[in-house]
Amino acid sequence: DLRMSRGLGDVYKRQGLFEPILILDGKYNQEISDFATLLEVGTDENTIDEAKNSMEFFSNVLYEYLNNEV
Q: Measured in Å, how far apart are the chain's first and last C-alpha atoms?
């Protein structure tokens, strides 16, 4: 949801890893569940290894966010 996206963005900013969160009009299956989150990793210019390596950073951000929100 938007609140979680913004909260994760705040953690990314604190860790110096921030890229702007894009908020677009449209549905990407989020309406299927109240607790669904879409996470896109990398771009068409990233390698699979780069995308996989970024998950370590994301897991740290998610951990910090969840520990502060729950």
A: 15
Q: Which two tokens stand for residue 61?
A: 């951000």
Q: What is the DSSP string of 17-43?
A: ---PPP--SS-SSGGG-TT--------
Task: Classify the C-alpha dihedral 7-68-61-13 as positive or negative.
Answer: positive
- The closest alpha carbon to 59, from 10, 11, 4, belongs to 11
Model pTM? 0.67
d(CA 28, CA 39): 11
pLDDT(21) > 80: no
